[in-house]
Amino acid sequence: MARKTIAALSAKGGAIALALLLAACAATPTGQQISLPVAQPTQPARPTAAQRENARILASYGGQYDNPKLQAMVEQTVDRLVAASERPDLKYKVTILNSPAINAFALPNGDLYMTRGLLALANDKAELASVLAHEMGHVIARHAAIREEQARQALIISHVVNDVLSDPNMGALALAKSKLALASFSRAQEFEADGIGVGISARAGFDPFGAARFLTDMQRNAELKAANSDPRSLDFLSSHPATPERVQNALANARQFSGPGAGERDRDTYLAALDGLVYGEDPSEGFVRGRRFLHPKLSFTFSAPPGFTLDNTAQAVLGLKDGGGEALRLDVVSVPAEQSLADYLKSGWMDNVDAASVEQVTINGFPAATATASGESWSFRLYVVRFGSDVYRFIFAARSKSAQTDRAFRDSVMSFRRMSLKESSEIHPLHLKIVTVGPHDTQEKLARRMAVSDNKLNVFRVINGLAASDKLKAGDKVKIVVD
After folding, report:
1. Global pTM?
2. Quick check: 235 and 221 in contact, CB under 8 A?
3. What confidence tens digit (pLDDT) does each residue in 107-166 have?
4. Hey, which end of the chain has fewer CB within 10 Å, N or C?
5. Residue 102 in contact with residue 221, Cβ under 8 Å?
6. Number of separate domains in the chain
7. Integer Cα distance of 438 and 115 in angstroms
């Protein structure tokens, strides 16, 4: 939840408020290559298409991840690949994104992006090179230009949600299907980019089998998270399908250049560059823990009503209850100090507000106001809370209004409070730590050191590219997740 980008979005009218809420729930930036456009701040000079897309990407993926050591390794890898490519004249710029999502993509001008989540999943330089070379293949084959057109067409997708707002679950499903249709348009091109990428990697001296290994690990990572089968949670695989067929194709491409074991992998150097990498959510942008949302930088926290699943996006904190009959959105806006919160609720930022329901309240010592509003098929409970120099807006929506839902919404907003300095200072992001396997270490023993709440052993295996049958060898380097 980035402070400045949240303020760029507002809801005009009950239906539009719900559209924004549900559209974001349906298409949160958790790794999708094609996503709904994010509103951008006004700039004095008209930005180019590449500048607009770069700003959208940075806003959607947590901004740039600043790690000079890792950036230098990635740039050196790119330079080596460019020299071995069919187009050594092309210039590339690489940006590491501060996102736990598993994603990488390219713009037509040669801007390459990869998330720190993807870097955390890879296990050697050959796997890194396979991803970079694959994206360079899209640029060389001009696939990226076609994808840029697809991104523009994504504007049309947003209308799908508006058209089916009478059933938000159908709206989410229609949105997901539309996104899949756009992604499917480029799936055939993935094989072509794979072929180009494997060739570039091999000519640059990297192990050409890195692509097959990384695709396999990517698939295993997706299976690990398969418990969330919601069609709205599309990830990297929507546009980068790691099917068995694609893995077999990558293996066939690699065999054209060498046998297994040939080419550079340099696992130890790669892992050394990953040491200390932020793993998972970055608390500086706020993070979710069950029903609770915490933002140490902005010093606030709140808990969603029971049964809700929260998602932290660049635009807002979004929540959806199991079954889809209730939803919430939290964002932040600037309201002049001289304007009362009651007047703000009646100022027109949302239509159909019941003026008679407007009431000034206090929430944990902070001035606030509340009101109800109505839409075609939804009822809304609104709260605005003045916190420092900003105003936080809670939009709760229910298809079936009742005293019980209203009480749950009230209890949720009443949990909004300032975090103590001690509380904020004790929250740190998880990191990768590179450790040396001891003579008596096993997968199970090392997995117990992982600072993850669930599936410690499976997460350990996936991030290290290990099968259950693999034996660890003393002296090997492996990743663990630490607090």
Report:
1. 0.68
2. no
3. 888 999 999 999 999 999 999 999 999 999 988 887 656 655 555 544 433 333 333 333
4. C
5. yes
6. 3
7. 31
CA 227, CA 222: separation in Å to the nearest integer?
Answer: 10
Q: What distances in angstroms separate CA 171 from CA 26, 161, 185, 261, one per listed residue?
A: 8, 5, 22, 49
CB atoms within 10 A of CB 16: 17
Sheet containing 278-279: which strands, arranged edge to edge?
278-279, 430-436, 477-482
My answer on whether 132 and 263 are in the same domain is: yes
Where in the sequence is the domain holding 245, given as residue range(s)? 31-278
**Burial state string for 432-464 with b = 16 or more CB within 10 A and e = fewer than 16:** bbbbebeeebebeebbeebebeeebebbbbbbb
Average pLDDT for runs of 10 along the chain of length 483: 42 39 36 35 66 81 91 97 94 94 87 95 97 92 62 43 39 41 54 90 96 92 65 41 76 87 92 95 81 91 93 81 88 93 93 94 97 89 95 94 95 96 83 97 96 90 96 96 93
Q: Residues 22, 158: contact at Cβ < 8 Å? A: no
Structure tokens, 360: 């000034």
One-character DSSP codes across 124-145: SHHHHHHHHHHHHHHHHTTHHH
State both tokens at 328.
């919430």
Measured CA to CA, the distance from residue 356 to residue 101 in angstroms comes to: 45
Q: In the chain, how long is the greatest CA-to-CA distance?
A: 76
Q: Tell me which residue of 186, 224, 222 sits closest to 105, measured CA to CA.
A: 186
- Return the ∠ at Cα 375 (arms to 369 and 378), rounded to 5°: 90
Same structural domain, 246 and 314: no
Q: Tell me, yes or no, whether 377 and 403 share the same domain.
A: yes
Q: Which amino acid is at 258?
A: S
- Say yes or no: 246 and 363 in one domain: no
Which residue stretches of 49-167 are H helix? 49-60, 68-84, 116-121, 125-140, 143-163
5 in any annotated domain: no
Q: What is the pLDDT of residue 19?
A: 40
